[in-house]
Amino acid sequence: MSHAPSLDPDEIARFSTMARDWWDPAGPLAPLHRLNPTRLAWLRDRIADHFGRDTKSERPLAGLRILDIGCGGGLVTEPLARMGATVTGIDPASDNIVVARHHAEAEGLAIDYRAETAEALAAAGETFDVVLILEVVEHVTDVAAFVATAGSLVRPGGLLLASTINRTLKAWALAIVGAEYVLRWLPRGTHSYDKLVTPNELAAALVSADLDVTAETGVMYVPLAGRWRLTGDMDVNYMMAAKRPA
User: Could you tell me if 114 and 94 are in contact, meaning their C-beta atoms sit under 8 angstroms apart?
Assistant: First the structure.
């Protein structure tokens, strides 16, 4: 695997230890399973709006080439493949890729999984219609450099979609203290407060990568309903879309 200065070896090792748990909805990655329906619906709608697709069709993303950076075990890549997209999933943790490949094969899905970095794909000159950086920027060492690399993988007229956690006291209380220490939804140490990224910082990185921000939304967990929903409050979890001019 090529060297990538934006990667944190400790973060890669942490997620490697959770590789076997990716598809366990009651395991350490349960929060991602709960978040996935709301996140996927927003991703689908942004992609469909951008490329003029009908979200009610059986395969609304057919013909689109999508890259999922930091794909983990494939929680997002598999649904996108079912929507008709040609999906490539990359992750620097090879254990995650092994799990993702086995699960996709068992589901009869053809997904191009690679134990690779975004930097290596950029160096090879690859581009995609859509690039995803979901729950990734809060784990890299250099957000601006990473976003610039991810942005370079978006073809002219293409779309980049990101999701992450804001750096606020509210996010510290809910996403770190609450989720990791009180509710124990995630292993302690999964997130570091000083590595969280504000919407303004992410937007600035996207603009510096020659991308235009087109949409943003907050995502909120509703305890009584046991599910996530979209919200105008971006103080904790949020998502952002940006396009590369044609």
Answer: no
